[in-house]
Amino acid sequence: MTERQLPAIPPGMHRPGIARGLVSITGQRYLLELLVRKELRVRYQASFLGLAWSYVKPGVQFVVFYFVMGQFLQMDRALPPFAVYLFSGIVLINLFSEVLGNATRSVVQNGALVNKIFLPRQLFPVSMVWVALVHFVPQLLVLLVGSLIVGWRPDVMGIVAAVLAILIVLTLALGLGLAFGAVNVAYRDIENIVDLILMVAIWFSPVLYSLDMVRQTFGEGSIMLALYQANPLTIAVELFHRAFWYPAANPADRADALMTNVMDRGVIALVVCAIVLVLGDRLFTRLSRNFAQEL
Fold it and tell me: Which parts of the chain span the membrane according to its record (predicted)?
């Protein structure tokens, strides 16, 4: 029977087996929840610490970087309170790294499901976003407590900056994760490329040093500075600094010249990341037709 001879599809329904992009996961909350639970259960199976590992990795990173950058290179004097400055950047970069890294591997790791049943393939990378958020929330709570201890008090613009930073990171990581995850099915070298990207991500954003140091090194108005500031991760980290570090470091003056345009750049970065998400979804949808054969 040809497609023209098939019966008409009732309103509100669609023909099964047709890839429709991220929109296809709407109404698939139950399947998404099952994938998230499966991922968490497999990850912490036979683990003594379980979810507590979400504290261990950022904790070790923080201790190492704090002593190397804060004590040995005396960044704690240049950026007080450096502990909040450092940890706020680590938390955000870890969120990006976990979403992108796991989303890239998500389709390959779920190859058995891809070959057995049809379900929207986008569920695999999207589920990794929720898994990353499960780990991100405890770290964010630690950051909030630490910020309060050093004198941080929430303000409206700071809350908006934090939300905007999280949206930028999640949108960018998911967009790239969809694209890399789709290509990774055919070329497993992509996993190694993504690992390299994640390895240098923390060094190419103002987590261990200040943006002012970059400005002094490259010079105001230089192309290198413009490229550095165009990095969405740079903008997201600066937004998180605006939310948690800046009010504690400058309680009397929250409108520093370095922060006046960070919100505008944040909105532009979110739009750019949304475009990356759309392009990544389209590439994923196109390549997903061959996933079962290649896996």
Answer: 48-70, 82-103, 123-150, 156-181, 193-211, 266-284
